[in-house]
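Subject: sequence -> structure tokens, single chain

Hey, anyone have a minute? Need the predicted structure for the following. Not urgent.
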Amino acid sequence: MTDTKLSPQVAAKRDRLMDLLKSYGSCAVAFSGGLDSTVLAKAARLALGEKAVAVTGVSVSLAAGELEECRQLAQDVGIRHEVLQTGEMSNPEYRKNDANRCYHCKRELFLQVEELSRRLEVAVVCDGSNHDDRSEHRPGMRAARERQVLSPLAECGFTKAEIRELAAWWEIPIWDKPATPCLSSRIAYGEEVTAERLAMIDRAERFLREKGFQPLRVRYHKGDLARIEVDATTISRFLDPDFREEVVSELLAAGFKYVTLDLIGFRSGSLNAVLASESLQILDLEAR
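Reply:
Had a minute. Here:
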């Protein structure tokens, strides 16, 4: 690795990030195994050595295989890794699945990471939020502010593209990994989050992922309806009668009653389209 592979702008932000992390003395990184938190975990390990720890929260909303990937990534970057069980499913406000669902999830996670940090005598808790997240609907950021969780990547001005560039320079294997939000994010707002529905989504997505679809979402809508989102260039695969029948059979077996294909194609956060702009403005004001 050499600085010549990094743009001067990203190299400068990397140096600022390292200095910022060193100033903490020690930190716990809320570690989902996604790109942002993995880059932050790598930076924390380089800046703080053994005084950095990555913490992963586990619940039924975590897709199959994600915990194993978290463990492998933590090993790859050399950071100590702790796993804890989160209890957001016991919170009726989380299960009712309104536009603030992520707030309740993140609040539960940060409370538990805080408790672990106190036991480990770690100074601060950090998350992987970046500069681009501020322009999106992310109620979890309000939970971070309330719990005084720091966001070093955002503070240093890192965009998503710059994080990918730094990850590639550090040879992090998931530098080009697409976003993998929790399974609850696939359930349409207003439809209750249940363990059964999460299992249905997980099974359907694992099946389609094994068929080579990526990016991919299987959205859950009222009446046990599945809305499949795949890259628009791959939609034509569903025209094959045998493949279409195989998909329908698998999703019905998973528990869905209706199986649909979104002709627009994959869109990150597409369920947010149903939120009224006025409601989003109110939520944004509440988060400030």
